[in-house]
Amino acid sequence: MINKIKLKFGSGSNSNNLEINTTPITIIVGPNNSGKSKLIREIYKWCTTSAGLGTYPDQNKILENIEFTALDKEYSKKALSKRIKKTIPNKGFNDSYIIGDNEDIHVSEDYYLQVLLRPNDLLTDFIPYFLKKETLFLGGEGRMSLVTEQNAGDLQSTPQNNLRVLFDDFQKRKEVRRIIFDAFKKYFVIDPTELGTLKIRLSDLEPESEVQELGIHPEAVQFHAKAKDIKKTGDGIKSFTGIITQLIAGDPSIMLIDEPEAFLHPSLAYKLGKEIALSATKVNKTVIAATHSASFLMGCIQSGVPVNIIRLTYQDNNPTARLLPSENLLKLMRNPLLRSTGTIEGLFYESVVVTESDSDRAFYQEINERLLKYKPNSGIPNCLFINAQNKQTVHQIIRPLRELGIPAATIVDIDILKDGGNNWTNFLKGGCFPEIHRRPLGETRSAINKKFEELNINMKRQDGIFAPGLPLEIFEAAEYLFNQLNEYGLFVVRKGELESWLKHLNVYGHSPKWLIDVFEKMGENPDSDEYLKPSDDDVWNFIETIGKWLLDPRRKGIPTA
Question: Could you give the 3-state DSSP secondary structure of residue 65?
Answer without folding.
Answer: strand
